[in-house]
Specification:
It is a single chain. This protein is an alpha+beta fold. 42% of the residues lie in helices and 11% in strands. It has a six-stranded mixed beta sheet with strand order 4-5-7-6-8-9, with helices on both faces. A three-stranded antiparallel beta sheet has the order 1-2-3, covered by helices on one side. Helix 4 packs across helix 8 and helix 7 crosses helix 8. The longest helix is centred in the middle third of the chain and has 19 residues. The two termini are 29 Å apart.
Length: 287
């Protein structure tokens, strides 16, 4: 199901966290900590987050047999390769796969989006096996920053070596049901602090939602975690890159996808992406 911008915004106790801008990331949200529902805020992202658990993770199309076999519609012999383990940091995200692949896809996502977590469960493993590992396609993951929670989690996901990006990315999405409910049930005073998006608010958020503990459990040092949370320049880059992608590609929903430089219309989940890739890579397609 299409997830519009507002549907993936974090909402706490009926109040939407203020969208984060470049100014917010460095100096705090100057326009008020909370944005009433439906308010005009530069880019109109102020809508409710869908109820937690709304995305069941199951396809409603009856294609489950086909979708569960990613090799069924893609060309190639299905032999295992290891390009899916190759990760490179890019100007706006992280690229997975063979840089000389015949096709290049961008995934636009954000970490408070429940449909993005569902896509990670349903589609990313299949993409690894069918298209990334054999070196036929690259996948570049680019975060769209909708709110201060997205900003903080994105800073933590990019914290560390690029080769471990996939593990961090998938961990925060796989455990979204652990940390996102803590955000939706936080006191209003804490919401107001987080909405500023500055160093102190990011550190408070990371501790309150146990985001820092999740990385520490994976062996990252507390000093490295704190360094990433406090990196204002990285925060500014994330917000600038997010806005650049919105401007360049016209991103209106997450997850969203661009294939070979062109945005795919009305494709926002594995169920709708699969037929596009099947046609692109089907045997005898001439590609």
């Amino acid at each position: 199901m299409k997830a519009p911008f507002g549907a993936c915004l974090a909402m706490v106790a009926g109040i939407v966290l203020a969208p984060v801008t470049a100014a917010t990331a460095l100096s705090g949200w100057s326009g008020g900590a909370n944005v009433p529902q439906g308010a005009q805020t530069g880019t109109q992202w102020g809508e409710e987050l869908p109820a937690l658990g709304q995305s069941s993770g199951q396809s409603s199309s009856g294609q489950s047999g086909t979708l569960s076999n990613p090799f069924s519609a893609f060309g190639g012999d299905g032999r295992r390769a290891s390009w899916h383990a190759e990760v490179e940091r890019t100007a706006r995200g992280h690229r997975i796969g063979n840089p000389d692949a015949e096709a290049h896809m961008i995934e636009f996502m954000n970490y408070t989006c429940t449909d993005c977590a569902r896509f990670a469960r349903e589609g990313e493993g299949a993409l690894d096996l069918a298209l990334l590992a054999p070196g036929r396609m690259t996948l570049e993951v680019r975060p769209i920053i909708r709110n201060a929670i997205d900003l903080t989690v994105s800073l933590l996901v990019q914290c560390g070596e690029p080769e471990d990006f996939k593990d961090r990315h998938r961990m925060f999405l796989a455990r979204q049901d652990d940390w996102l409910p803590k955000a939706t049930s936080a006191p209003q005073s804490q919401q107001a602090l987080w909405a500023r998006g500055d160093r102190a608010s990011r550190a408070n958020m990371a501790a309150a939602l146990n985001l820092d503990d999740m990385l520490a459990e994976r062996g990252m040092s507390r000093s490295d975690i704190n360094r990433c949370i406090n990196d204002d320049r990285a925060a500014l880059t994330l917000t600038d890159n997010s806005q650049a992608d919105v401007n360049e590609f016209g991103v209106t929903s997450t997850p969203g996808f661009a294939l070979d430089g062109a945005m795919l219309p009305d494709v926002h989940d594995w169920e709708t992406l699969y037929p596009v890739l099947s046609a692109r890579f089907r045997p005898g397609s001439g590609r």
